[in-house]
Amino acid sequence: MQESIDIEALNQQIYIESAFVERLNEETGKIIVGQENMIERLMLGLLAKGHVLLEGLPGLAKTLAIKTLSTAINADFSRIQFTPDLLPADIIGTMIYNPNKNEFTVRKGPVFANFVLADEINRAPAKVQSALLEAMQERQVTIGSDTFKLDEPFLVLATQNPIDQEGTYPLPEAQMDRFMLKVKITYPNKEEEREIIRRNLSGNFGKIEPIVTIQEILKARKVVDKVYMDEKIEQYILDIVFASRNPEKYGLKSLAPLINYGGSPRASINLARASKAYAFLKRRGYVIPEDVRNICHDVMRHRIGLTYEAEAENITQEDIINKILNAVEVP
C-alpha cells in the first residue's frame, strides 16, 4: 500500500517536473520538421547523462537539431568539424607560451562547453577520436599537468556518416561503447519534405528562444534518478544483455555463430538509465517493459559485434536485437 502511494506521489512530481519537455518539443518544432524520434533521443541523452551518436546521410538535419536544442536550453554550445588533419589539441586545448610572463598558459579547446557537437566524427583518424574519450567518460580534461572538470550538463552529440562512404574511419569499439545511444536517422516522408522545401524557399524560419535553463535540466536529472524500476524490469534488462552474450542459454542457438561479442556492462547500465529517462519523457514515475523495448535498439546496436558469417549472410545488429526481444520473456 505504501509503495502505491509513493508511486502516485512520484507520478505527480514527474508530471509537474516534466512540463518543460512539451515546451522544448514546441520550440524545436519551429526549426526542425519531423524527426521527432531524433529530438526525443537527444533529450533522452540529456536527461540520462549519456552521449548520443547520430548516424545518417548528409542533409538530414543532424547538426541543425543539436544546435536548435542547445539554443532552446540556453546552454554553451561548441561545434567541432572533424577532418583528417585535425589534432587532439584542436579539441581539448593546449599550452601556449606567453613571452610577456615567460610562462606557459592553458588555452582551453572547444570541448569546454555544455553541448559539444562532434560533426562527422568518423572523418578523423583514431588518435583524434580518442582525444574525446577522457572527456566523455571522466567528464574532465587534462592539459599538461592540469586537470579541469567539465561543467554539467556535459553532452557529446556526435554525427557520423555511414561507414561505407568515402573518407570515413570506423570508430574504435572502446569509443563506440561510451555512447549511450546510437540513433539511425532516416529520410523525411513526402509531407515533411514538402514543408522543408516551403520553409526554405520562403525563408520562413522561426526564431528559437531559450525557454529552459541549465538548472531545470540538472533538477530534472535528479528526478529521473527517482523513477521507480521494479526488480522484474531489472531482470528483463539483464536477460536482454546476457542473451546478446550467450544466446544459446535463451533458446537462440542459431545466433551464436553470428555474434562476435555482446553488450558490455555499460549496455545494462545505459539500458536502465535510458529506460528511466524515457518513462520521465512520457511523464510517468515508473518503468514498464515497453520503455525498455522502445530504446533497446538505440542502446544495443553499437554494442553487438558481428562475425564474418553474419556479414556474409547480410544479418544486421537490428535483426539480432529483434530476435533477442522476441525470445526473452517479458515481465
The CATH superfamily of the largest domain appears as P-loop containing nucleotide triphosphate hydrolases
The share of residues in extended strands comes to 15-25%
Task: Characterize the biggest β-sheet.
Answer: 5 strands, parallel
By DSSP, the count of extended strands is 11
Straight-line distance between termini: 21 Å
Inertia-based shape: globular
Give helix % range.
40-55%
- The structural domain count equals 2
CATH topology of the largest domain: Rossmann fold
- Helix segment tally: 15
Supply Rg. 21 Å
Mean pLDDT: 84
Low-confidence stretches: 1-5
Question: So what's the CATH class of the largest domain?
Answer: Alpha Beta
Strand order of the largest sheet: 2-5-8-1-9
CATH architecture of the largest domain: 3-Layer(aba) Sandwich
Pattern of helices and strands: HHHEHEHEEEHHEEEHEHHHEHHEHH
Class based on secondary structure composition and strand pairing: alpha/beta
Q: In a nutshell, what does this entry contain?
A:
The protein is an alpha/beta fold and 331 residues long. The chain has 15 helices and eleven strands. Helix content is 47%, strand content 16%.
